# Entry
Amino acid sequence: MSKEQIQICEEFFDIMPPEYQALVTNATWGQESRGWKDVGIKKELIEQHSLCAGCPESMAFRYILASLPNPEDTVMVGSTGCTSLVFPHVGIHNIHSLFGNQNAIASGLKRALTVRFPGRIKDVVVLAGDGATVDIGLDYTLQSWFRQEKFTTICFDNELYANTGGQESGLMQKGFVAKMAPLGKTFDKVRLPEIAKESGWTYLQLYTPCILEIGKNSMEGLQEMRDSEKPGERFAFKEYISDEAKAFLADRAEKEKTRKSAEKEALAQA
Ligand SMILES: Cc1ncc(C[n+]2csc(CCOP(=O)(O)OP(=O)(O)O)c2C)c(N)n1
Ligand code: SF4
Ligand SMILES: [Mg+2]
# Structure
């Protein structure tokens, strides 16, 4: 990793926005050890955001940014929804796609970057809501998975269309009553993890969703929200790694071990 791409010409440094100056002087970019411990200290890991106060997605967003292995060579693809409000605050190249189109955009982008920058890894990461990923964009999501396109899809599953006031989503739980779906959901939550596995996944992670919309104005609402999430029960952290990905990770760990012991040996001989 390097900061090569975000340097400021010396003569113009003082007239650049302070956020850009901070990015160049203090950002975690270029540091191999960057990670979750930098959240809250480093400006580019989202100092401020425009989500609702207390929205858990803001924290998830920060951890995702902190865990990107190659931030200067990463492009994130967003889609309309609550998550898209955050992208203007993000110090990573990003594209806002039309609602639902995100995996199609990412497919073309990843392929184009591979041709344009041979020999250099350019990462593409989609981050979109459940409505964008599973309802309106499901065709594009699945087609990109079937084709085994080489990018990551992250779905923030808050189990409804939050940004437009709370309409029913495919990932919403059966029977759930939302502000703009007063009759309650009549069919089961779409089994997205199973569909991902069936489509040839290599790595899959599940987190707890947030359902703030149903009760942000009252204590009863907060209890309702807590009950709905069933902490530790319905959505405990789960991780699935395919055999292919396990072999890749084991190989990488082995190489890292060899590199470290060579470094240690060289240090001892110096
Ligand atoms: C093509 C298109 N269709 C519909 C909309 C209206 N729209 C904006 S956000 C949204 C729902 C987003 O839901 P989700 O993807 O779950 O994201 P969330 O807001 O819950 O994070 C919809 C339907 C739009 N902007 N563009
Ligand atoms: S509506 Fe929900 S998901 Fe959207 S910003 Fe507010 S709390 Fe977060
Ligand atoms: Mg949603």
In short: Helices lie at 18-26, 56-67, 102-116, 130-136, 138-146, 192-198, 219-229, 243-269. The domain at 3-193 is CATH 3.40.50.970 (Rossmann fold).
